[in-house]
Specification:
Layout lengths: L3 E4 L9 E5 L9 H10 L1 H11 L7 E5 L7 E5 L11 H18 L4 E4 L11 H16 L5 E6 L2 H12 L1
Parallel strand pairs: 1-6, 2-4, 2-5, 5-6
Antiparallel strand pairs: 3-4
Length: 166
């Protein structure tokens, strides 16, 4: 199935796994991370993340989905934007690859991503979405999985249409 971009709350996605744009300590943060923690159950997810402890930038770890429709949450740590000269694109691409690999290893047939690093980590939205689309499409050339990118605002909806149609 081709990649689909949907304007939807990631916590309502009925997929095998959703991806959390996490921080390295796997603690509840702002933005999509906070939304996922609240929807999954703060106490349960905090305990699961505390048991894992840490996740480096560009890597991914997995927990149960708890109260979410998704069975599992894959937590990945995107890079903080520093102008584009600190390997941000490579690290961001690694987030998507590592998350997809972990999903495959856990038997997931469907996964939903936010646009990683495009919120409080400051990655420019267009560039972040382009990395996501390119990395996921490359993965789908050799793997079978339903992959969604969830977006939440009109600006990202416009950018996604331009990138997919251009």
């Amino acid at each position: 199935m081709p990649l689909k971009i949907v304007q939807k709350d990631i916590t309502t996605m009925k997929v095998d796994a959703i991806v959390n744009a996490a921080n390295t300590r796997l603690q509840m943060g702002g933005g999509v991370c906070g939304v996922i923690f609240r929807a999954a159950g703060v106490d349960e997810l905090r305990k699961a993340c505390d048991q894992i402890g840490h996740c480096p930038v560009g890597k991914a770890v997995i927990t149960d989905g708890f109260r979410l429709p998704a069975k599992q949450i894959i937590h990945t740590v995107g890079p903080v934007w520093q102008g584009g000269h600190q390997h941000e694109a490579e690290l961001l691409s690694s987030c998507y690859r590592e998350s997809l690999k972990l999903a495959m290893e856990h038997g997931c047939r469907s996964i939903a991503f936010p646009v990683i690093s495009s919120g409080i980590f400051g990655y420019p939205k267009r560039e972040a979405l382009q990395v996501a689309i390119t990395t996921i499409q490359t993965f789908l050339e050799t793997h079978e999985m339903d992959v969604y990118i969830t977006i939440f605002d009109e600006e990202m909806a416009r950018i996604s249409k331009e990138l997919l149609n251009g």
